[in-house]
Amino acid sequence: MKVSIWWIRRDLRLSDQPVLDSALRAVGETGQILPVFILDPPLLNSPYLGEKRLAFLLGGLRALDADLRRRGSRLTVRHGPPGETLARLAWEIESAGLELAGIFAEADHSPYARQRDERVARDLPFQPVGSPAVLPPGAVLKPDGTPYTIYTPFNRAWKVRLSQDSHSSIPAPTHINTLDWVTSLSIPAELHLPSTVPFPPGEEEAQRRLNYFLESGIRTYQVHRDRMDLDGTSCLSPYLRFGMLSPRQVVYTALAAIESAPDENAGRGVETWLNELIWRDFYIHVLHHFPGVRSRNFRSKEIYWQNDPGDFDAWREGYTGYPVVDAAMRQLCQSGWMHNRARMLSASFLTKDLLVDWRWGERWFMQHLVDGDPAANNGGWQWSAGTGTDAAPYFRIFNPVTQGLKFDPHGTYIRRWVPELRHVPETYLHAPWKMPIEVQRAAQCKIGTDYPAPLVDHAWARERALDFFGKV
DNA sequence: TTTTGAGTTGTTCGA
DNA sequence: GTCGAACAACTCAAA
């Protein structure tokens, strides 16, 4: 009898699951599947992994295990180096007189994962299937066969490529014949998602959110997505990060949503949202073709950052004295997520106002984001710092006050995340240091005591950054 | 090979 | 208050 190992990494779902589908095909009607998740020590101990994302992952494993059990299956969890662990499982299968049909896993394009997989493939019958991107790296190239490094042409080519593509969603199997005598660790239970993290893990929740977003949020997406005070975005990033949603299914569901409801706003919303999903693919492709971006500037030579540890501390704890920046940083630490505009704004503040190395910010974000993904996070940070592919021009420096006025006009976002500013009148909310002393007293918010004075003067910092980056 | 046009997300200043 | 231009120069994409 044949057995397929389904090695689960960041594809925690059963529907539209090409890896599981391949594993099933390889063993036929009578064969068995062994769904495995391996707790890999270097990943668990990585300085880029934080508790919130780990808790989300573990919760996702619990949810997947429950989904599997409903189909007569279960998840096997092991701990150890993946190569040895898989070899051990292969040995267990073969010593029981069964035939290993193959080890099936979704491709993972991050540098660590590629090295790991190459090593596994050397010794074991391992095949990567599918991709966490909608279109896999290599599928979108310039006519001369080299990868794109500018988003807009990539976007155009991506859309052409998608139009040549066909997709028929693979339904979740109703029953999965499973090898059930293999021993498994229990999923570590000590880590639970804090209640401040608004992302219940699991495929069912992911599907529910996708449907809800496509029914209601998509119509206002284009106008509300930049507003930090509204729930204008899809909030699907953690689910896409761990493959609780199939990225291909997301795209095709969204496209189908325009066709079935030809509402002008919905159409615009889907179009805008699709462009965001293409950014996700873009950075996955960039990291695949240029793995060096994880440690080095994509474009510019080394930059001699100021890297003041005190400035960095103030930034990461949310005590810069600029309310939107502080709201953003506290939202990150408490909820494990940050609004897209808040990410740009706080990244601009760290790299341009404080002249701190983007890698410091990148690592901090990775430690706290539930959706933290090496490709997207690195792409975003290098873009913000002006060192990346298709980077922001060096003179594009966000003004935290005007950005706040524009994208959090009533200060709801600030009041939500920076409670010491809760009673500050709207007129002063984005620049509280301008409050006259009697207003500070009335608002129970003394600047310098209850809430910090600005860490740097933005106008001065802007000039300093222009000068600094001008020289580079 | 050469040439031309374009490049996510902003801010400030002066008319 | 609104609007357009300047903020540079360079690399990339595509004809």
Secondary-structure element order, N to C: EHEHHEHEHEHHHHHHHHHHHHHHH
Q: What form results from the Cα inertia axes?
A: globular
Strand order of the largest sheet: 3-2-1-4-5
User: Quaternary arrangement of the chains shown?
Assistant: single chain
Quote the beta fraction. 5-15%
User: What's the CATH H-level superfamily name of the largest domain?
Assistant: DNA Cyclobutane Dipyrimidine Photolyase, subunit A, domain 3
Counting helices, strands and paired strands, the structural category is alpha/beta
The separation of the N and C termini measures: 64 Å
Number of DSSP helical runs: 20
> Helical percent range?
40-55%
The assigned CATH architecture of the largest domain is: Orthogonal Bundle
Integer tally of domains: 3
Poorly predicted parts: none
Rg calc: 24 Å
- Report the CATH C-level class of the largest domain: Mainly Alpha
Roughly what is the average pLDDT, rounded to an integer? 95
Provide a quick synopsis of the model.
The protein is of the alpha/beta class. It has helices spanning 18-27, 41-44, 51-69, 82-95, 111-123, 151-163, 203-215, 221-224, 237-241, 247-260, 264-289, 309-317, 323-335, 340-353, 358-368, 374-385, 400-407, 412-417, 437-442, 458-471, and strands at residues 2-8, 32-39, 76-79, 99-106, 126-129.
Provide structural commentary.
The chain is an alpha/beta fold. It folds into three domains: 2-130, 3-Layer(aba) Sandwich (Rossmann fold), CATH 3.40.50.620; 131-168 and 203-289, Serine Threonine Protein Phosphatase 5, Tetratricopeptide repeat, CATH 1.25.40; 309-471, Orthogonal Bundle (DNA Cyclobutane Dipyrimidine Photolyase, subunit A, domain 3), CATH 1.10.579. 48% of the residues lie in helices and 7% in strands. It has 20 helices and five strands. The protein has helices at residues 18-27, 41-44, 51-69, 82-95, 111-123, 151-163, 203-215, 221-224, 237-241, 247-260, 264-289, 309-317, 323-335, 340-353, 358-368, 374-385, 400-407, 412-417, 437-442, 458-471; strands at 2-8, 32-39, 76-79, 99-106, 126-129. The protein has a five-stranded parallel β-sheet, with helices on both faces. Helix 1 (18-27) links the parallel strand 1 (2-8) and strand 2 (32-39). Helix 14 packs across helix 16. The chain is globular, with a radius of gyration of 24 Å. The model has no long low-confidence stretch (mean pLDDT 95).
